[in-house]
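In this supplementary section we document a worked example of the pipeline. Step one takes a protein sequence of length 266 as its only input; no multiple sequence alignment statistics are reported here. Step two produces a three-dimensional model, which step three serialises into structure tokens for compact storage. The input and output of this example are shown verbatim.
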Amino acid sequence: MKVNINRMEAEQAKITLQETAGLAIVTIHRPQKRNALTANMWNQLSEIGQQVLDNPKNKVVLLRGAGEQFTAGSDIQEFSQITLEEAEHAFVLMEKAISTFENLAIPTIGVINGPAMGAGLELALACDIRIGSEKSRLGIPVGKLGITLNNKFAKRIVDLIGPSLAKDLVYTGRVLKAEDAHRLGMLNYLVKEADLDRYAIKMGKLVASQSPASLLAIKQSVSECINSVPDMWSGKSSFVDEHDFPEGVHAFVEKRVPQFARRTQV
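The serialised model returned by step three reads:
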């Protein structure tokens, strides 16, 4: 078994790549921050995603979080310490990482144990298949933070659950329990936590045993069917609001209710 490990020593954060029996297992590990990713970690995740294809023996990617978390998404604490321009760039790095896994020429399976929130939900939805445990929680409560989803972020949700429910998740900030996420198709399979890793590996090996030509063809054909929306919308900022974002982030860090100013859209 070959094991390649990419590490970030700060705050014990690391992303590992384990390659074995045709499976590339990517694990996000930052337990003290609920596996939240910094901008540097998103960039590292992109590099690892690209690295997966360097090994022709890799047939399937399993993307998971360590412990009882998938990932809480981006590190909001980091947002409180950077400028709007830097925050916007951080979102570009997020999208690059998410798209890297979404567009891999081999199947990707998200292994969801615990919360997949915000950009973490987007990362999970970028996977071709998602397997969750009863501890899975899925949501995108960006309304508390002044984050403005561009149409590519929104489309991943709309493609699975439709426009009304996609808006519902942002309007209310509610978090879906595992059973609800499974019923809506956000989780393809729901298994007991104790069986999750074993089931994911079994599923990965099953997918890896199929014709590579068939797998690539269906992945490309489905992508062509659904990807008719431009990657970005035009505007001053694709991801953050210049007024609500700083207030939302500081309220999150200070553990208080955000006080968003009333504004009228012209």
